[in-house]
Amino acid sequence: MFRLKDTEQLFRMSTSQGKALSEGRPLRADARRNRARVLVAAETVLAREGLGASMRAIAQEAGVGLGTIYRHFPTQEDLYEAIIVDRAQRLLSQAAALLEAEDAGAAFFGFLTDIVVDATRRKGMADVLADAGIDIKAGMSEASSAMREAIQSLLTRAQQSGAVREDLLMPELLALLSALYMAAERNQWNVELRARTLAIVFDGCRPHH
Amino acid sequence: MFRLKDTEQLFRMSTSQGKALSEGRPLRADARRNRARVLVAAETVLAREGLGASMRAIAQEAGVGLGTIYRHFPTQEDLYEAIIVDRAQRLLSQAAALLEAEDAGAAFFGFLTDIVVDATRRKGMADVLADAGIDIKAGMSEASSAMREAIQSLLTRAQQSGAVREDLLMPELLALLSALYMAAERNQWNVELRARTLAIVFDGCRPHH
Amino acid sequence: MFRLKDTEQLFRMSTSQGKALSEGRPLRADARRNRARVLVAAETVLAREGLGASMRAIAQEAGVGLGTIYRHFPTQEDLYEAIIVDRAQRLLSQAAALLEAEDAGAAFFGFLTDIVVDATRRKGMADVLADAGIDIKAGMSEASSAMREAIQSLLTRAQQSGAVREDLLMPELLALLSALYMAAERNQWNVELRARTLAIVFDGCRPHH
Amino acid sequence: MFRLKDTEQLFRMSTSQGKALSEGRPLRADARRNRARVLVAAETVLAREGLGASMRAIAQEAGVGLGTIYRHFPTQEDLYEAIIVDRAQRLLSQAAALLEAEDAGAAFFGFLTDIVVDATRRKGMADVLADAGIDIKAGMSEASSAMREAIQSLLTRAQQSGAVREDLLMPELLALLSALYMAAERNQWNVELRARTLAIVFDGCRPHH
DNA sequence: TATGAATGAGACTTCATTCAT
DNA sequence: GATGAATGAAGTCTCATTCAT
Fold first, then answer.
1. Is C8 a residue whose pLDDT tops 70?
2. Choosing among C2, C200, C203, which should be mutated to test the D contact, i.e. which has the most D CBs within 10 A?
3. What are the pLDDT digits (tens) for C40-91?
4. Structure-model confidence comparison of residues A205 and A32, the more confident one
5. Mean pLDDT (whole number) for C99-105
6. If you average pLDDT over residues C97-118, what whole number do you get?
7. Nearest-CA residue of chain D relative to C187?
8. Inter-chain CB proximity A172 and B200 less than 8 Å
9. pLDDT score recorded for residue C146
């Protein structure tokens, strides 16, 4: 069974995407294309077959040889790690974009919604995250300061604007994000369930009460 | 990879606990003892090693031969199913007990708390539930009418007492239960995080707003 | 996989049928009944499931406990041996009966027919005989003098009556018996195929040519 | 216990020998070498240990890893099937060669002899054929038209030349082939027994009588 | 550099046999 | 004497990973 060796370094927004192995010169164009294909194929296969997906199946989906996968990701673990990092980066961009928004409250709640929507789109990833001994919350809380900082800013600004209660702190916010992410992903919340469930949580986050 | 054949029949509050395989006469005393030992050992090993736990490891932990596991649970799947059923039964008893409580609101919020506390205590189970293609929410929503009815009653009574908002329906309640369960389990929420996170959700469930 | 330890002693027309284990006092009535039931069940199951049949399946078919089988047949091998002995004894009675017949030629060809008819009736046994490292021919040629003598007499008398060629000897006769038995059993020769195939062999056995 | 799924397609004179699994490009040189080594080793081990032979034993005999066997033959069943096909192909070549012979009677009887000689050389195969739920007769009768046609031609030509009785039809001929093959193989008929037994059958096939 | 053939540890499961009940 | 629960060796097959081509 797969198990990440170093949870700590996840979500470190690694810059490995454009790099060979751990560092070194930039990848040749075709190599970079292969790397991306493998990453996409891995998500596809994982979504389809769950955690039992084999490296061979991923290679086939990607249309490359087994050896090619191992050139880019020396270990199955490394591949899964890369998927997670990939994922986190996309989430981070969304958070960053929302930081620019005018309505701080809408930005904050928008981010929560984004999380759930994203999760809904990516069935199967949770298995990987799960078995990797890591999940969004764990990942986030221990993880890249970039991500933490983005969320923190979103929260602070929303509180300052009065849209979110003052006593909401990062730990429970991350816990909630984690919970929503995992459940939405695994159970494939449809749009209505998503809306109704988030409505409850949003209300819980509002001030006054 | 492990996958349950029949999610439908989970949580059916089976009475299999004291019975041989699916039916037949009651197990001999020593057989019943072994069955229980295997179940306990399985939870232990699953918590320790995650979903990758091998049947052999479980046998060793239980101090029985491999064959003994297979006598009681013809398949790995059957064993995992039994664990889940076991679990659901305990949760159901708690829900049932709370139905007797005087304060309907406290009973309702108490059940949510129970879920989270129980989850916290059982690290690793989520992997099983997860990869079983089933989770508390899925299990509950499709599952035993007994469990559904208990939760429904808890909710209705709490709403009638005015402690919970009228527009809270079962789908989102189950979704929330699922989310809290999984996250609390995987991330091992400590008592404080538990309290603070639940506080948000509880507020979201309250009326007025 | 099953393998007989001592092919030599097969077909020795053992008298074990009415005896306990290797010798000793006669079995109690119920014990003898059980022994017979096991033997019948074993043939049934072997015919149904082939060589892969398990001792447990045989016990179930016989309606006795596993332990009971082992009381009568200390080993799977012993059980299979008993089946073969059983079989040979029946064949022997038929041969003996035919020895009394007036028409020696008809008796001889009748025995060949009996062999094939018997084989046709007992699908699956060949697997056992086969994997026992023994078959009718091998068994017969090495086996009980009783059987050999019966066949020898059948042959000699038929030759003396002029119905069978003088140069037909026991080795090739046994070889032919073996061949017909195995093929008829495995392929379940129907009555017509049986007749047409035997016609060829019979003609080959006739004198003159 | 081993059991072929599709007896029908046996003896189809597949061209799989030089091919990867079912289709695809030709195997790499080393792969083809390994495939052949496995096939040879399998026959050897089967002859030595009977049907109980394990895949591991075959791998050892072949001097390859277990996985290598499974790459070429995804299933034990596939391996055994391949052996049978292999075998049938060789028999077919012999039959084809005999079709060119001038003396049609000699060709016909020669083929019967070939069958028995071949069988004698390959102890143990019968177990495989047998438990495969298939044997020469069954295989042949249901099997490749190529093989059937070759035998049919041999027969017809021999009948036209007057060497074989007119009323001998394919069904009983195949039944006899099957019987001789199995018995000769299992009992390892020596040259003399072979000759004496075949003499009887040959006489039975001759006309006049 | 890319490919995929080879490897072998290890997983699940079966089943003959023993022995406590 | 009968039963069937327990045992564990052994079997088939999968799959991450290595390395020759």
1. no
2. C200
3. 999 999 888 877 899 999 999 999 999 999 999 999 988 988 888 887 788 8
4. A205
5. 92
6. 92
7. D138
8. yes
9. 77
The number of C-alpha atoms within 13 Å of B113 and in the hemisphere containing its C-beta is 14
- Burial class of A22 by CB neighbour count within 10 A (0 to 12, 13 to 18, 19+): exposed
CATH number at residue D56: 1.10.357.10
| Spatial separation of the C-alpha atoms in residues C106 and A186, rounded to whole Å | 79
Please state, in angstroms and as integers, the Cα–Cα distance from residue B38 to each residue in A138, B35, D62, following that order.
31, 5, 41
Kindly list the distances between the CA atom of residue B40 and the CA atoms of B13, B46, B77, B84, D73, in Å, as whole numbers in the listed order. Answer: 18, 10, 16, 12, 41
- 10 Å Cβ neighbour count for A73? 23
Tell me the average pLDDT of chain D: 79
Tokens standing for A117? Answer: 């929507």
Which of D176, D183, D209 lies at the smallest CB-CB distance from C182?
A: D183
CB contacts of B179 in chain A (<8 Å) are: 179-180, 182-184, 197
> Which residues fall within 8 angstroms of residue A102, CB to CB, at 6 or more apart?
none
Tokens of C73: 């047949």
CA-to-CA distance for D111 and B149, rounded, in angstroms? Answer: 78
- Judged on CB neighbours under 10 Å (0-12, 13-18, 19+), A72 is buried
Total number of domains constituting chain A: 1
**pLDDT, averaged across chain C:** 79
- Chain D residues within an 8 Å CB radius of C187: 135, 137-138, 175, 178
Distance of CA D125 to the CA centre of its chain: 9
Residue among C51, C175, C204 minimizing CB distance to D189: C175
Amino acid at C20: A
Over the stretch D21-50, which tens digit does the pLDDT of each residue have?
444 556 677 889 999 999 999 999 988 887
Within chain A, residue ranges assigned H as helices are 29-49, 55-62, 66-72, 76-99, 104-121, 125-131, 136-142, 145-160, 170-187, 191-205
Cβ neighbourhood burial of A189 (10 Å; 0-12, 13-18, 19+): buried
Q: At what angle do helices B104-121 and B170-187 cross, to 10 degrees?
A: 40
- The integer distance in angstroms from the CA atom of A101 to the C1' atom of F14 is 51
Residues lower than pLDDT 50 in chain B: 1-23, 131-142
Question: Is the Cβ atom of D200 within 7 Å of strand F at any atom?
Answer: no
Other CB atoms within a 10 A radius of the CB of residue A6 amount to 9
Q: How large is the average pLDDT for residues D117-121?
A: 84
**pTM score, whole prediction:** 0.80
State which residues form the domain around B159: 4-205
Q: Which residue among A1, A202, A205 sits closest to B52, beta carbon to beta carbon?
A: A1
What is the CB neighbour count within 10 angstroms for residue B29? 8
CB-based contact B151:B114 (threshold 8 Å): no
**DSSP letter string over D132-147?**
TT--HHHHHHHS-HHH
Does the structure show a pLDDT above 50 at A83?
yes
User: Is the pLDDT score of A137 beyond 70?
Assistant: no
Task: With beta carbons less than 8 A apart as the criterion, state whether B69 and B59 touch.
Answer: yes
Q: What is the mean pLDDT of residues A77-102?
A: 86
Q: Which residues of chain D form beta strands (DSSP E)?
A: none
| Any C CB within 8 A of D175 CB | yes
- Whether the pLDDT of residue D69 is over 90: the answer is yes
